[in-house]
Each structure stands twice: as C-alpha cells, then as structure tokens.
Amino acid sequence: MQFEFTPEQQELVALARRIAREQVAPRAAAIDEVGEYPEEIFRAFRDAGLLGVGVPEAYGGAGMGTLGLGLAVEQVAQYCCASGLMLLLTKLPLMPIMLGGTEEQKRHYAGGTADGSLRGAFCLSEPDAGSDAANIQTRAVRKGDQYIISGTKNWISGAGQADFFTVATKTDPAAGARGMSVFVVERGTPGLTVGKKERKMGVKGVPIHQVVFDEVAVPASAMLGQEHQGFKVIMGTLNSVRPVVAARGLGLAEGAMMYALDYARQRKTFGKPIIEHQGLQWMLADLAVRLEGARLLTYRAAIEVDQGHTGKADAWKLSAAKLSATDLAVQAATDCLQIMGAAGYMQDYPMERHYRDAKQLQIVEGTSQIQKNVIGRALLEGDLHW
Ligand SMILES: Cc1cc2nc3c(=O)[nH]c(=O)nc-3n(C[C@H](O)[C@H](O)[C@H](O)COP(=O)(O)OP(=O)(O)OC[C@H]3O[C@@H](n4cnc5c(N)ncnc54)[C@H](O)[C@@H]3O)c2cc1C
After folding, report:
1. In the structure, which protein residues have their CB atom closer than 6 angstroms to any atom of ligand 1?
2. Which of 94, 125, 210, 330, when mutated, tests ligand 1's pocket best, judged by the most ligand atoms within 8 Å of its CB?
3. Bridging pattern class, strands 164-170 and 120-123
4. What's the pLDDT tens digit per position in 321-340?
5. How confident is the model at residue 3 (pLDDT cuts 50, 70, 90)?
6. Which of 64, 84, 115 corresponds to the end of one domain?
C-alpha cells in the first residue's frame, strides 16, 4: 500500500485547484442563484484539459483514470458541487460506450468528450423505477435493422446540454434484469424530446430534465454490448462511477470545513474565538477523522476501478466509498452551518448552498440505503471478510 500521488497526479491536483479557485469559486454563488448550466465553467474545464482527464490516451484523453478524475472533481467540489458534477458527466454517460461500444463508437464519443465537442446524459431512472433499475419500463423493439425505443426517463442530469444519451431499455420485458439492453441515441433523433427543466433543491448549475422517447428509431448498431446483457453494462457503469460521486462528497466536506474553520477563528463569543470552545473543536475533529477515512476509501475505490475490479466481489468497496463520502458531506454541511450560527443560514455565505447540494449526493447513483444493501450482501456472501 502506498499513500503518495505520482508527480503527474500532483500536477493535476494543482491544476484543478487553480481552476477551482480562480474560475469556479468566484462564480459558485451566481451559478446557484441563476440555476442555469454555466457554459463559461465548461469552457474553462475544456481549455485546461480537465474534460479528458479520465478518458484513455488512445481516445484523446489524459489517461489518468478514475483516480485522476476523482482528484480533479474533489478540488472543484470544494467550491461548487454542480461544477464537480459537470466533470463527473465526462464519465457517467460515456461509460456504457466504453464497456459495450465498438471501437469506432469509443473513438467518436470518448474523443468528443475529451475535446469538449460532445456532451452526454445517462438515462436510467424512470417515473416508476429508480433504485429498482431492473424494473424499468422503457421498451426497445427490433424492427428489421432498427430498434424502436419508447419510454420516459426522469431526473436526467445534463440532458439540456447533451449531444448524446445512453439509454437503458427492456428488450425482453418478461426477463427482468436479464432482458435489458443499452443504446446510444443522438440528440435530434425524431421522437426524442427533452422536457422542461425541473425545479430542485440544490446542485442548480446542472439542471435535470425528463427525457421522452416516443418511437425513437435507432440502428441496431446503436446497441452497446449484447442484446439482453444491458444490466451488466448499467451496473458496470454505476460501479465505476461511484468513486467519482464520492469525490464530490469529499470536496464538498472539505470546502465546508475550510470555510467553517476560517469563520470560527474570526468569530468571538464569551471573549474568545469560537474555535477555542472545545464543543466546536470536537465537532470539527469528528468530521476531520471521518473525512480522512472517506478519502482513503475513495482513493482505493478509484484505484480498484482503474484496475478493472468493478465486478460483484469488489462492488462493496465502491459502495463503501460512495456511502461514507456522501453521508459525510451531509454531516459536514450540517455541522459547519451550525458552527456559523445565523450566518450559516444566510445566503450571503456558501454554507446553506453546501447544505442543499450535499443532500443530492445521498440520492443519486444508488441511494445510501442501496449502498448498504450492496455491502450487506457482500458480508452475507463472504466477499467482505478479515
Ligand atoms: C438531482 C438528481 C439528479 C439525477 N440525475 C440522474 C441521471 O442523470 N440519470 C438517471 O438515470 N437518474 C438520475 N437521478 C435519479 C436517481 O438516480 C434516483 O433518484 C435514485 O436512483 C433513487 O431512485 P428514486 O428517486 O426513484 O427512489 P426510490 O427508488 O423510489 O427509493 C425511495 C426510497 O426508498 C429507499 N429504498 C428503495 N429500495 C430500497 C431497498 N431495497 N432497501 C432499502 N431502501 C430502499 C431509497 O433508498 C429511498 O430512500 C437523479 C436524481 C436527482 C435527485
């Protein structure tokens, strides 16, 4: 086990930190206030080369893997959780293509992601199927050399900007998880409609939309992987993105703690800075310990993904990282807001935004309860032992 980053990884952290402090931090409050996707941040990421950090070199990226992407996301999310999600979206919708696509599809979509000419959205959730992904109702029916896709996807991050959509469907509805297939669908395909922007609590810089597929015809070659094998592609995608969601939680917790610490050094009660009250030091000490634990889990999980360990036996490690870092983010935002008293509750400071943003992390890409189910199953089946 080694705890040092390579010189290349250290340079990446320094670069992401600079972009986060110079470009993201000054705009974070306005991004939240306006509630629109910040194109100028996307351009800043593109110009700095951050969109391709996790894309393999063979497809035009930096080849720094899930760990590299997670490190960049962590820095950015210290100031703006939505901007961290923008970077995460260079992996989530692309992953089904990397797992099941042809060489040509990988070159096209991964290359476009890395150079910023293409953006994607990942379409799994539906009005009646979130955690229970195998229960999706979207159908894809073979007709000659095409498939016809019909169904409704809910809460799709980045759908407003997406050039392509990776879509989970049922090709054999009676077969449950064994009847799923995944497709890539281009924006502008007749029958595909991106619905209105939803009103939500936080992470407002990345709006979510409903995406409706009304008899959308795609060539059979748009299928990613084998027919009926889509569940594997979906689970492989979600598992490999868990460390990056965790990195958003780490960054948010770090940002909240740095701000609260600074504030607590300035603010005085009973004749001394509030940081000198032991009750507050203990709150921060508890958070710091949990943060260090979550960082280790997250970095290990990212390395596991980069080593190709995303199958059932290793899934608990990825879930443990996501669970611990996102639960920590909520706790850190709650405690740091408390440390700031009324000021924490005011929109003049970033803490109430961190508080609203953090909650999203416990819900997306597998809720905290679903992560515990994965870890519980690993315990029962002996994958997790000492
Ligand atoms: C801001 C935001 C962005 C999103 N972006 C995307 C996106 O880009 N693409 C996409 O496909 N989806 C997206 N989603 C949807 C997200 O993935 C789902 O909300 C999530 O999977 C949970 O599904 P659900 O909301 O239907 O909750 P449900 O599945 O209905 O669960 C409701 C509650 O029951 C609990 N629960 C369910 N089953 C179990 C169980 N077996 N054991 C214990 N507890 C259980 C859950 O933990 C939860 O607390 C987004 C959601 C949000 C809020």
Report:
1. 122-125, 130-132, 155-157, 200, 203, 208, 360, 363-365, 367, 369-370, 373
2. 125
3. parallel
4. 999 999 999 999 999 999 99
5. confident
6. 115
